[in-house]
Amino acid sequence: MKAASAIVIGAGAAGIKPGLSFHLLGATALTLMFRHAYNIAHMKDSEVGERDHLYTVDVAKIFRIAEAAGYRGYYSLEWEGWGGAYEGTSKLLEESLKYLR
Questions:
Q1: Which of 26, 69, 81, 83 is the Cys-Cys partner for 46 at CB 3.0 to 4.6 Å?
Q2: Residue 19 has pLDDT above 60, yes or no
Q3: Domain range annotation of the chain
Q4: 70-to-16, 36, 42, 74, 95 alpha-carbon distances in Å
């Protein structure tokens, strides 16, 4: 699988790419990442990996972990998968907004 987890630190910004981190590292590691991120988290609900396998994440669980860790930064969204990009991105946005209200 090509999915990677990272803490990104740059000029005045620290963020994370939780994407599929939950599957790769587990809730404890993702919680620690969210505690150190203060600016941006890049959210994906799926990723196409090796042999065209579609990996998905539980968006609700990711947002619960972020909230419990005290994360108050921004989220960027990216959709990857099969089907229309507009429909996939719209679905991720609608689902994400349920947990940000």
A1: 81
A2: no
A3: 7-100
A4: 14, 10, 16, 13, 20
